[in-house]
What does this fold into?
Amino acid sequence: MKAIIHVTLKQGILDPQGKAIEHALDSLGFSNAANVRVGKYLEVELNETDRARADAQVKRMCEQLLANTVVEDYRYELT
Amino acid sequence: MNIGVVVFPGSNCDHDCAYVFNDVLGQSVQMIWHKDTQLSGLDAIVLPGGFSYGDYLRTGAIARFSPVMRALKAFADKGGLVIGICNGFQILLEAGLLPGVMLRNTSLNFICKDVYVKVENAATRFTHRCESGQVLKIPIAHADGNYYTDPVTLGGIKANAQVIFRYCTAEGNVTPAANPNGSLDNIAGIMNADGNVLGMMPHPERSAESVLSNEDGRLIFLSMLSAFGKSEIRARPVGA
It folds into this structure.
């Protein structure tokens, strides 16, 4: 089973990288681009066939390491 | 005083810290590899600056799971003195030994320069050799020093006098212009509620002897020494 994980900054947390990219897009003529937010994308292969167990494991991975839940949200799907 | 300096893969200020405690201040220092799990006979532990695990994922996020960290937490829980400098501060935050997180500097730049910080609380084991409100010139060198925490936690650490250093002007005014990285409330260093764990972004070990033309950082190490009833012993003349 494979987990596809997205980690993103919570709403309201300033994202300086997103802002810099937004300005770069603007300078390239994409003046309608707004609110760029940078996040992380992770793929994790799991040696697990039970969906519920895999789900619980990925949730723990996110909580313990992959996201800092003070400032980041995470979401994932199992395929 | 027996000082332990933790070495993670990617630490690069470990020997600077050991140098200050040993060569400059004449204390006993041992280097602690991050896989060590026994911390015995130590009075204080330094988590030095650097780029542990290449700052992968988030600064300090992987180092906090190094084997030594469990022993370090037990050491801190028993009241042992712990100082985290720069990356060491980031590791303490990720480990939950101090509240909050570090975000990327608002400028996105890696900033390496002298800054001024105001001693907001001089009644601590890390700052009691300073005057309350004293301005220290200490260099910073980081890309992720933009301190953030939620409003409730911020209110708590302020009310509890756990904010130890704030970025300020040379005259001691805490202003937005004096904030190099966007830190919430100009925060440059905080302490835990028990007063034995300090995290700070500026590097006092880079400003601890006169040959570097700046000794302000030395006050922090001297405070730690006198917390243990020790005074500095010149191991050898400066520059020798």
Summary: Chain B touches chain A at residues 57-58, 61-62, 65, 94, 100-101, 103-108, 146, 148-150, 182 (CB under 8 Å).
